[in-house]
Amino acid sequence: QIMKQVPARFDLKTSHIPTYSAEKLSSMKDADWNDFLQRVCSVLDSTEKNTGTTRSKLNLLLYLCAVAVHKEIASRLISSQLFPILIQQLRAAANWDIRAKVARVIGLLALHTTELKENVPVSEAIILLTEIIRENFRNSKLKHYLLPALGELLYLIASEEEKRGHSRESWVVPSATYTVLMRCLREG
């Protein structure tokens, strides 16, 4: 059963960073863009464990979902220092809501990216998503959040390799990923 994702809605008033429009983000000079990215990364990378921090991270992830649907922004974000921090949050976040939103951001970035640079750790994200799905295989709600991101990353790699005419060693997809996907398709 495929369920449609509800649109991401973030709260402007509680945001700890300026919530620029996609148009404003795409017209930013490099220094302003780097400052913005630094602020986003510091909020996500915060190790405080309280309700306010969790709410701030969730709100920021919802904002990232909103701007990640713009091709230029998605391409810039996936190639930035944000992507490794998203992977780290997917691995380490104690809150499953945060993990689900991180997976959604990753999936949206993969879906809307027009160019994937070779240094983007896409394989690391695929391996991590595969491990989490395998460890929580009976949790259908969790698979509902993680499988779309995994599928979008696989499609992104395949389309980039097709565009370039050859595969990249840095984008290796482990056979366990295909095994997990086939098992999900078979068993639901």
Automatic annotation (TrEMBL):
Key words of the record: Kinase, Transferase
GO molecular function: kinase activity
Presence of the UniProt keyword Repeat in the record: no
Identification of the protein by name: ULK4 kinase
Domain of life, source organism: Eukaryota
Gene: Ulk4_0
